[in-house]
Amino acid sequence: MKKINKKKLIYYLVIFILLIYILVIDSSSFYQKYKVKKELNELNTNIENLEIENQRLREENEKLEKDAKTWEMKARELGMQKQGEEIFLFKDEEELKADK
Question: In this predicted model, which residue has the larger pLDDT, 84 or 3?
C-alpha cells in the first residue's frame, strides 16, 4: 500500500510541477501573457499621449507660420529682442538667494 501512495505522490508532484511550468515559467504562460498585455497597454497610452502632444505642436507651428504676433511673442519668451531694444530682467527674492 505504501508503494501505491508513493506512486500517487509522484504522479501528483509531476502534475503540480507541469502546472507551475505552464502557468508561470513557460514563455507562453498566463503570467508572461499578462506582463506583455500590461506593457502593451502602457505603450498604447504612451502613443496616445505623444499623438496629443504632436497635434498640439502642429497647431502651434501653424499659428507661428500664420500669425506674426504669435511668432513675436514666442521669440520674446525665448529671450529674443528687436534690434535697438533693451531688455530688463528682474529677479525675485528666491532667485537672488539661489545666486548667493
Answer: 84
